[in-house]
Amino acid sequence: MKSTKKLGIWMDHSIAHLIEFSENSFEIETIETKFTHEEKEKSLAKGESFMHNKEQQTLSDYYKKIAKMILNYNKVLLFGPTSAKTELFNILKEDDRFAKIKMNIKETDKMNAYQRERFIIEHFSSPLYR
């Protein structure tokens, strides 16, 4: 029987912490958006429309990097304090490659590494999500 691979992703619009759930949960990757505060200021100097286009393009690239990692898992938990997790979920549900991946979304506050790992352990240990 093939084992179920589970991934928790704490994310906001600037960074995503990808944490694999296994016997020893650990962060496997951190993905950061390239749209930093400095980049926003530079883009804004060229006009608000330019800045918004640059931000959308950068977020799209950020979501694509996360999506590529998700393809390796059967169950995924998206959690964090902003709407980024929902935006990513909405993009993924339009793509047939993600149709067989069970995804859950949870609203949380900012968390340190320990809190993120505990949250994932509690989520995937629940009888509802095994």
TrEMBL record:
Protein name: Host attachment protein
Entry-linked InterPro entries: eFR1_2_sf
Source taxon at top rank: Bacteria
